[in-house]
Design a protein that fits this description.
0% strand; mainly alpha
Length: 202
Protein backbone atom coordinates (compact mmCIF):
# COMPACT_ATOMS: atom_id res chain seq x y z
CA UNK A 1 0.00 0.00 0.00
CA UNK A 2 1.44 3.33 -1.09
CA UNK A 3 1.47 6.18 1.41
CA UNK A 4 1.25 9.77 0.25
CA UNK A 5 3.58 11.49 2.71
CA UNK A 6 3.24 15.18 3.44
CA UNK A 7 6.15 17.33 2.36
CA UNK A 8 7.12 20.94 3.10
CA UNK A 9 5.84 23.48 0.59
CA UNK A 10 9.37 24.79 -0.02
CA UNK A 11 12.62 22.93 -0.75
CA UNK A 12 16.06 23.85 0.57
CA UNK A 13 17.66 24.87 -2.71
CA UNK A 14 21.18 23.96 -1.60
CA UNK A 15 20.30 20.29 -1.18
CA UNK A 16 20.72 18.37 -4.44
CA UNK A 17 18.10 15.72 -3.64
CA UNK A 18 14.93 15.19 -1.68
CA UNK A 19 14.62 12.55 1.02
CA UNK A 20 12.93 9.42 -0.30
CA UNK A 21 9.58 8.03 0.80
CA UNK A 22 11.45 4.89 1.87
CA UNK A 23 13.43 6.85 4.47
CA UNK A 24 10.29 8.56 5.79
CA UNK A 25 8.55 5.20 6.17
CA UNK A 26 11.58 3.66 7.92
CA UNK A 27 11.99 6.63 10.26
CA UNK A 28 8.31 6.73 11.23
CA UNK A 29 8.42 2.99 11.94
CA UNK A 30 11.37 3.43 14.32
CA UNK A 31 10.65 6.65 16.25
CA UNK A 32 12.76 5.84 19.32
CA UNK A 33 15.86 4.95 17.32
CA UNK A 34 15.44 8.17 15.34
CA UNK A 35 15.16 10.20 18.54
CA UNK A 36 18.20 8.56 20.11
CA UNK A 37 20.17 9.05 16.91
CA UNK A 38 19.16 12.69 16.73
CA UNK A 39 20.30 13.19 20.31
CA UNK A 40 23.70 11.93 19.19
CA UNK A 41 23.51 14.28 16.19
CA UNK A 42 22.90 17.28 18.45
CA UNK A 43 25.85 16.29 20.63
CA UNK A 44 28.11 15.86 17.60
CA UNK A 45 26.98 19.20 16.16
CA UNK A 46 27.98 20.91 19.40
CA UNK A 47 31.35 19.18 19.10
CA UNK A 48 31.83 20.45 15.54
CA UNK A 49 31.22 24.05 16.60
CA UNK A 50 33.65 23.72 19.52
CA UNK A 51 36.24 22.00 17.35
CA UNK A 52 36.14 24.86 14.83
CA UNK A 53 36.57 27.39 17.64
CA UNK A 54 39.71 25.56 18.79
CA UNK A 55 41.03 25.13 15.25
CA UNK A 56 40.67 28.81 14.36
CA UNK A 57 41.09 30.74 17.65
CA UNK A 58 42.30 33.90 15.91
CA UNK A 59 39.53 34.08 13.31
CA UNK A 60 37.64 37.35 13.97
CA UNK A 61 34.14 36.90 15.45
CA UNK A 62 34.14 33.13 14.92
CA UNK A 63 33.91 32.21 18.61
CA UNK A 64 31.11 34.73 19.13
CA UNK A 65 29.10 33.01 16.38
CA UNK A 66 29.91 29.37 17.14
CA UNK A 67 29.69 29.41 20.94
CA UNK A 68 25.90 30.07 20.91
CA UNK A 69 25.47 27.28 18.33
CA UNK A 70 27.32 24.81 20.54
CA UNK A 71 25.25 25.83 23.55
CA UNK A 72 21.96 25.52 21.66
CA UNK A 73 22.91 22.10 20.27
CA UNK A 74 23.57 20.85 23.81
CA UNK A 75 20.27 22.32 25.00
CA UNK A 76 18.52 20.33 22.29
CA UNK A 77 20.52 17.24 23.25
CA UNK A 78 19.20 17.59 26.80
CA UNK A 79 15.68 18.26 25.57
CA UNK A 80 15.62 14.99 23.64
CA UNK A 81 17.09 13.13 26.64
CA UNK A 82 14.26 14.32 28.88
CA UNK A 83 11.68 13.53 26.17
CA UNK A 84 13.05 9.99 25.92
CA UNK A 85 13.11 9.65 29.71
CA UNK A 86 9.42 10.56 29.88
CA UNK A 87 8.75 7.74 27.41
CA UNK A 88 10.74 5.27 29.51
CA UNK A 89 13.87 5.26 27.35
CA UNK A 90 17.42 6.49 27.80
CA UNK A 91 20.38 7.30 25.60
CA UNK A 92 22.26 4.31 24.24
CA UNK A 93 24.99 3.66 21.73
CA UNK A 94 23.77 3.20 18.16
CA UNK A 95 25.76 2.12 15.16
CA UNK A 96 26.25 5.36 13.25
CA UNK A 97 25.71 5.52 9.50
CA UNK A 98 28.81 6.31 7.40
CA UNK A 99 27.28 9.61 6.24
CA UNK A 100 29.35 11.99 8.37
CA UNK A 101 32.62 10.13 7.91
CA UNK A 102 32.14 9.97 4.14
CA UNK A 103 31.37 13.67 3.96
CA UNK A 104 34.42 14.50 6.08
CA UNK A 105 36.66 12.73 3.56
CA UNK A 106 35.89 15.57 1.15
CA UNK A 107 37.31 18.29 3.40
CA UNK A 108 40.51 19.46 1.76
CA UNK A 109 43.60 19.42 3.98
CA UNK A 110 45.20 22.72 2.95
CA UNK A 111 44.06 26.05 4.31
CA UNK A 112 42.08 28.13 3.61
CA UNK A 113 40.15 25.44 1.71
CA UNK A 114 39.90 23.30 4.83
CA UNK A 115 38.02 26.11 6.55
CA UNK A 116 35.68 26.63 3.60
CA UNK A 117 34.85 22.94 3.30
CA UNK A 118 34.37 22.60 7.06
CA UNK A 119 31.84 25.44 7.11
CA UNK A 120 29.97 24.17 4.06
CA UNK A 121 29.78 20.55 5.18
CA UNK A 122 28.58 21.60 8.64
CA UNK A 123 25.92 23.67 6.89
CA UNK A 124 24.88 20.81 4.61
CA UNK A 125 24.44 18.46 7.56
CA UNK A 126 22.26 21.05 9.31
CA UNK A 127 20.25 21.54 6.11
CA UNK A 128 19.62 17.82 5.75
CA UNK A 129 18.63 17.61 9.42
CA UNK A 130 16.18 20.47 8.88
CA UNK A 131 14.63 18.77 5.85
CA UNK A 132 14.21 15.45 7.64
CA UNK A 133 12.90 16.87 10.91
CA UNK A 134 10.35 18.82 8.87
CA UNK A 135 9.23 15.57 7.23
CA UNK A 136 8.92 13.89 10.63
CA UNK A 137 6.99 16.84 12.06
CA UNK A 138 4.54 16.71 9.16
CA UNK A 139 4.05 12.94 9.13
CA UNK A 140 4.35 11.74 12.75
CA UNK A 141 1.05 10.51 14.12
CA UNK A 142 1.79 11.34 17.75
CA UNK A 143 1.27 14.99 18.64
CA UNK A 144 4.08 15.03 21.21
CA UNK A 145 6.57 13.94 18.55
CA UNK A 146 5.28 16.58 16.13
CA UNK A 147 5.72 19.28 18.76
CA UNK A 148 9.25 18.13 19.57
CA UNK A 149 10.36 18.05 15.94
CA UNK A 150 8.81 21.44 15.26
CA UNK A 151 10.64 22.90 18.24
CA UNK A 152 13.98 21.77 16.77
CA UNK A 153 13.36 22.91 13.19
CA UNK A 154 13.96 26.63 13.46
CA UNK A 155 17.42 26.30 14.91
CA UNK A 156 18.50 23.77 12.27
CA UNK A 157 17.56 26.27 9.56
CA UNK A 158 19.31 29.10 11.37
CA UNK A 159 22.45 27.05 11.94
CA UNK A 160 22.92 26.08 8.31
CA UNK A 161 22.39 29.73 7.39
CA UNK A 162 25.09 30.78 9.86
CA UNK A 163 27.64 28.30 8.53
CA UNK A 164 27.04 29.39 4.94
CA UNK A 165 27.26 33.05 5.95
CA UNK A 166 30.58 32.35 7.66
CA UNK A 167 31.83 30.86 4.40
CA UNK A 168 30.63 33.84 2.35
CA UNK A 169 32.20 36.32 4.77
CA UNK A 170 35.59 34.65 4.37
CA UNK A 171 35.47 33.62 0.71
CA UNK A 172 34.05 35.06 -2.50
CA UNK A 173 30.42 34.34 -3.32
CA UNK A 174 31.43 32.55 -6.53
CA UNK A 175 34.00 30.38 -4.74
CA UNK A 176 31.58 29.57 -1.94
CA UNK A 177 28.65 28.54 -4.10
CA UNK A 178 30.76 26.63 -6.60
CA UNK A 179 32.18 24.50 -3.80
CA UNK A 180 28.78 24.22 -2.12
CA UNK A 181 27.30 22.84 -5.33
CA UNK A 182 30.09 20.26 -5.54
CA UNK A 183 29.69 19.16 -1.93
CA UNK A 184 25.91 19.09 -2.18
CA UNK A 185 26.10 16.61 -5.05
CA UNK A 186 28.52 14.47 -3.06
CA UNK A 187 26.17 14.58 -0.05
CA UNK A 188 23.28 13.33 -2.17
CA UNK A 189 25.42 10.58 -3.68
CA UNK A 190 26.44 9.39 -0.22
CA UNK A 191 22.82 9.15 0.89
CA UNK A 192 21.92 7.26 -2.29
CA UNK A 193 24.72 4.74 -1.83
CA UNK A 194 24.76 3.93 1.89
CA UNK A 195 22.62 1.21 3.44
CA UNK A 196 19.46 2.79 4.82
CA UNK A 197 19.07 2.58 8.60
CA UNK A 198 16.64 4.22 11.06
CA UNK A 199 18.98 7.17 11.46
CA UNK A 200 18.57 10.86 10.72
CA UNK A 201 21.38 10.78 8.14
CA UNK A 202 20.98 7.45 6.38
Amino acid sequence: MLVDFKRPSSHIKYLSSLTSDEWIKLALSNPIDILIDHAHCERKAAGVAIQLMFRYPSEPNLAEVLSPIAREELEHFEKILYFLKDLGYSLKALKPPPYGAELAKNIRKDEPYRMLDSFLIAGLIEARSHERLALLALNSEKESFKVLYESLLESEARHFGIYWKLAQNKFSKNQTFKRLEELSKIESEILAEIFMMPRVHS
